[in-house]
Write a structure and sequence with these properties.
The chain has eight helices and 15 strands. The strands form three sheets. It has an eight-stranded mixed beta sheet with strand order 5-4-3-11-12-15-13-14, sandwiched between helices. Strands 6, 7, 8, 9 and 10 form a five-stranded mixed beta sheet that branches.
């Protein structure tokens, strides 16, 4: 009972009070990649993340050693790290997140496992235009959130004291990593409802390099937003699939028509170019 009350009070405080939380480095054993280190954030609102072979095998459907992968909306790096392990030392994984609270942990995770991975992370948002944006969260501890051009947004009442930088991805990659672009195989996007705007802004990258796309349909998205999300990828020749979790044994359901985007409220799906 005491532990339950303590946990409940800590969670309530995290929703109302902005403060820093410590990091704990955990160790996970994997069949293929051996012992892996991961920095977990001890924010009481954040579930402890684990890395296992089932999740790694899920990503291996899309990428392999030497590939180039992007994690947009990386948070603390619980997807960045698996991607970087699979792309390996000869490949490259980039992680992007504008939230300064999670970025500190993302930086730590990018530095771990460096003998078998190659990761670079950036503290800005990927947006449809180079600009500055407000960043809001529903929790005072900023364990998650989203960007907006308006000071008050649907993402919550708590706002960073400063605007964050937004960068157009295509220009950034062409200027900074042009040699890696031919090996671009996967773009994961999780930006709290901003995914389709990013997809629209990277249409040239999708057309030229045809990477797989893992993206989120935000629960608050309207029917119009969901249909547009579908059409943006379908019009580029992608086949879309709902999946029930980031595991090799996840349920996979084809999304054949735009109306299928209404079957689930908040969900992840992937899009691939199929021969």
């Amino acid at each position: 009972m005491f532990n339950y009350l303590k946990t409940s009070l800590n969670r309530r405080a995290a929703r109302r009070i902005t403060r820093e939380y410590p990091v704990r480095t955990d160790t996970f054993e994997t069949e293929k990649y051996g012992r892996i280190l991961f920095a977990n954030w001890e924010n009481p609102l954040v579930e402890r993340k684990e890395i296992d072979q089932k999740s790694l095998s899920f990503y291996e459907k899309f990428i392999k050693e030497g590939d180039f992968a992007l994690d947009i909306g990386a948070n603390i790096g619980h997807m960045t790290v698996p991607l970087s392990l699979i792309c390996g030392k000869t490949g490259l994984t980039l992680g992007f997140d504008p939230n300064p609270y999670v970025f500190k942990i993302l930086e730590q995770n990018a530095s771990l496992n460096s003998s078998i991975s190659n990761t670079k992370v950036f503290n800005f948002a990927i947006t449809d235009a180079d600009d500055e944006y407000y960043y809001n969260s529903s929790e005072a501890s900023f364990c998650n959130g989203g960007i907006s051009k308006e000071k008050i947004s649907r993402h919550g009442k708590f706002a960073l004291s400063h605007k964050i930088k937004g960068v157009r991805l295509e220009s950034f990659l062409n200027e900074t990593f042009p040699d890696r672009l031919p090996n671009l195989r996967l773009i994961k996007i999780d930006t709290e409802g901003y995914d389709k705007e990013i997809i629209r802004s990277i249409s040239n990258l999708l057309k030229q390099y045809k990477p797989a796309v893992i993206t989120e349909c935000f629960g608050k998205n309207s029917e119009k937003d969901r249909f547009e999300h579908f059409e943006l990828l379908k019009s580029q020749g992608y086949s879309l699939y709902y999946f029930s979790g980031f595991s090799i044994d996840a349920e996979i359901v084809p999304i054949l028509k735009k109306e299928d985007m209404l079957k689930w409220r908040h969900f992840d799906f992937y899009a691939v170019q199929e021969d």
